[in-house]
Amino acid sequence: MATATATRPRTQKLAPFVDSVEILRAPLFHTPGNTFENPGNLIALYDGALAIQAGRVAACGDYIAVRAQYPDAAVRDLRDGCILPGLIDTHAHFPQVRILGALGLSFPEWLETRALPEEARLADTAHARVVAREFVQGLASHGTTTALVFGSHFAEATAELFNAADHHGLRVTSGLVLSDRGLWPSLCHAPEIALSDSRLLIENFRDKARLRYAVIPRFAPSTSEAMLEVCQTLLRENPGLLFTTHINESPAEIAEVLQAFPGAADYLAVYEKFDLVGPRSVLAHNVHVTDAELARLAERQAAIAHCPCSNAALGNGIFPLQRHLNAKVRFALGSDVGAGTGFGILREALQAGLMQRVAREPVVLTSAQLLWMATRAGAEALSMADEIGDFTPGKAADLVYIKPAAGTPLHAVLTHTEDPERMLNAVITLAGAESVCEVRVEGDVVYEGKP
Ligand code: GUN
Ligand code: ZN
Question: pTM for the full model?
Answer without folding.
Answer: 0.96
